[in-house]
Amino acid sequence: MQAIRIHGRDTGPALEDAPYPHASENDVVVRVHAAAFTRGELEWPGTWSDRAGRDRTPVIPGHEVSGVVAELGLGTTGLSVGQRVFGLTDWTRDGTLAEYVAVEARNLAPLPASIDHVRGAALPLAGLTAWQGLFDHGRVESGHTVLIHGAAGAVGSLAVQLARDAGARVIGTGRAADRDTAVELGADEFVDLDTERLEDVGPVHVVFDVIGGEVLERSASLVRPGGSLVTIAAPPAVRPVDGRAVFFIVEPDRARLVDLARRVHDGRLRPPVGAVHSLAATVAAFTSGQARGKTVTRIIDDRG
């Protein structure tokens, strides 16, 4: 099969032939229709070694997939050959920027026929991260005020929509060019981090951060007593005086993927699709600058 592979930390990605994946027990092999990746994954330890710490180069990057089940591993239940699915792959196994990928069945969910594979590939990582940050860790409820940093990005844009749908008042942040997008998605207010004072926002119930650094540190003082500072960037160096500080890494969740897909089907949630490339063009896209939305690789063009 064709796949994007990286042979070491000091080498770039290349499109080349790769072995067809093996379906272990409770795995499925997915015929990939569309995939997505995170540029920062080249810094993740699991990109370069397996669970036992052994080198596993050359590696196939990408952890978000939408496609069709091509093969079932021994003992696999709950899915069937030919079924449309989407979800996340394991952090320490070869990924989704390939024509086929082996995935634990429990990490995949059925993809409704109303959702195309490009949107399916853009949803799992950003959607699960936004949900878990807001509700599992931030405990957002109706009537809360939520400050979402990076509100026009892949995770932030879904967080804005989910928080607004839950009845929260949403304040988004970013650069000036992000204002219209954040407001369109449901932000009640927007703070331009380059020109406006973050400290003027006032106390909020939850800060959800995807930026880190100085922005994360300055946000601790904005959390009201009993509130939460939640981030995916790094463990917070500054904590709220009377509140919680949470750093988390997203976890697969089939039931939540089903819920997110239902929201997309119902028109309540818009996946953050950005640029869409072929597998060959993704080689350059993987090392290019950050683009708005989720960069998606379309491996099979099934638009009809």
Question: What is the compact description of this entry?
Answer:
This protein is an alpha/beta fold and 304 residues long. It contains seven helices and 15 strands.
Could you please describe the fold and organization of this structure?
The protein is α/β, with parallel strands linked by helices. The chain contains 7 helices and 15 strands. The chain has helices at residues 117-122, 124-137, 154-165, 179-185, 213-219, 254-265, 279-285, and strands spanning 2-5, 14-17, 27-36, 64-72, 84-88, 100-104, 108-110, 145-148, 169-174, 189-192, 204-209, 223-231, 244-247, 273-277, 294-298. Strands 3, 4, 5, 6, 7, 14 and 15 form a 7-stranded mixed sheet that branches. A 6-stranded parallel sheet has the order 10-9-8-11-12-13, with helices on both faces. Helix 2 crosses helix 3.
Which key phrases capture this entry?
six-stranded parallel beta sheet; 304 residues; globular; 15 strands; alpha/beta; seven-stranded mixed beta sheet
Describe the secondary structure blueprint for this structure.
Elements (H helix, E strand, L loop, with lengths): L1 E4 L8 E4 L9 E10 L27 E9 L11 E5 L11 E5 L3 E3 L6 H6 L1 H14 L7 E4 L5 H12 L3 E6 L4 H7 L3 E4 L11 E6 L3 H7 L3 E9 L12 E4 L6 H12 L7 E5 L1 H7 L8 E5 L6
